[in-house]
Structure formats: C-alpha cells, structure tokens
Amino acid sequence: MKLGELSKASGVSRASIKFYLREGLLAPGRKKNATLAHYTPRHLDRLRLIAALRDVVGASLPQIRALTELIDDPEVPLPRVLERAQLTGLGEPAGGAEGSPAAGRRVDEIIAGRNWPDLPSEARKAVARHLDAMSALGLGVSDGLIEAYVRAAEIAAAAEINRSVSENRDAAALTVAVGVHSHTQLLLRTVALAQASLTLRHFGESGAPGAEAGE
Questions:
Q1: DSSP 141
Q2: pLDDT for residue 170
Q3: Is-contact 52 177, C-beta < 8 A?
Q4: Exposure of 210 by Cβ count < 10 A (0-12 exposed, 13-18 middle, 19+ buried)?
Q5: Which tens digits make up the pLDDT trace of 63-76?
Q6: pTM score, whole prediction
Q7: What percent helix, strand, coil does the chain show, rounded to 5?
Q8: Helix count and strand count (H, E) for the chain
Q9: 3-state SS assignment for residue 30
C-alpha cells in the first residue's frame, strides 16, 4: 500500500507516519522510486501499536521506542517483549528498584501460595515496590485482602493470557500493554463500585450503621 493508503487504514496522519519513519519507530517502506514507497501489513501493525500506546496508555516516545526496539530485535525472546509491554501499560519504569526485603518476602509468599512458576521479573519488583508504598502511607495490606486480590488477578490473567499468544510481536505487545492498562482501570472502578454498593448495604441511604438499603 502507498503512504496515503497506510494513513487511511491506520487512522494515523501522513505527517505522523513520516515522523515515525524519521524517528526509526517505523521501518522504511520498500522503495519503488525516489518518491514512492510501498508499505505492508507489518507497517500497519506497528502504527496500530504506536497509536494505542500514545492514545490509550499515554506512553511517552522514549517508552514506545524502548518497546519497539525489543520487538524488532530477533534475539529478544517474546516473554521479555511482553514484560516490557506490561510495564509500559502500567506506566512502570524498566529496571526499577527492588522493594524492601519484607516486601520481597511477601511477594515470595504470594507466588508460593498460588504455586506460580517464578523467575526474577520486573512485575515482581513492581508489586514489592507498591507494597512498600502502601505501607509508607499507613495502608498495610492484610493477608486476607491480598489473597482476595491475588485470586482475582489470577482469574483475570488466565482469561487474558491466550489473547497475547501470537507470532506477531507487535500485535502481542499491543494486546498486553493496552490490556494491562485497561484491565487495571476496570479493576479499580469495579472495586469502587463494589465498595459503594457494600457501603450502601451496610449503612443504608440514611447512613445509619446496619440499616439495609430500602429499610
């Protein structure tokens, strides 16, 4: 397809496509002559990934570049690509600091309790850092509460994981980055909805403890 066709198919302006070409985020098209190049479905996949990362996730250009460089490196295995896609979707830095030893042990317990396979990972460090941040705010997480979140996370992850299994690395990265971003937001809002409903059940509309809604 020509540049104009690529722009129409992707919904990305010609000016933006030219910018991504200059920045190396998008591979050059196959030259037909000095002024004309042809583009493939691979270019369309990359533009869809870039657009989703910018418009849905709110990723910065350096974050997008870091991810696309991994995608384009055949020596980088897909699990590492998807790990970076996860971090991009969460807005977490790559190579972030380890959490405290106490938080690290808590993550160990989570993983062992669910019998999950385990290797050092950025996701593991991100959970430990978040536990530390919550502790610093006085928001300690009880074993019962974290078990509830872990069960919900496992169910959601199991439902989603097959969607990211693809030989198309751009498509797989898009599914993971946008998925983890959107599902995180869905989980937050669903918890808020549950809290609102359970508060109403407990206090009722009058605000009196123990007054069921409608009583």
A1: P
A2: 94
A3: yes
A4: exposed
A5: 999 999 999 999 99
A6: 0.73
A7: 70, 0, 30
A8: 9, 2
A9: strand
Contacts 24+ apart (CB under 8 A), 21-27: 23/61, 23/65, 24/65, 25/50, 25/64, 25/65, 25/68, 26/50, 27/72
CA R_g for the chain: 22
198's CB contacts (< 8 A; 6+ apart) are: none
Mean pLDDT computed over 123-142: 90
Query: Residue 22 and residue 13: Cα distance in Å, rounded?
Result: 14
pLDDT reported for residue 213? 46
Identify the band that residue 77 occupies on the pLDDT scale cut at 50, 70 and 90: very high
**Vertex 150: Cα angle to 144 and 151 (nearest 5):** 90
String of DSSP letters for 74-135: TTS-HHHHHHHHHHHHHTPPTTPPP--HHHHHHHHHHHHHHT------HHHHHHHHHHHHHH
CA–CA separation, 118 and 116 (whole Å): 6
| 3-class DSSP state of 31 | strand
Cβ atoms of residues 166 and 81 within 8 Å: no
Question: What pLDDT is stored for residue 27 in this prediction?
Answer: 92
Model confidence over 152-207: pLDDT tens digits? 888 877 776 666 556 789 999 998 898 888 877 887 888 889 888 988 888 877 66
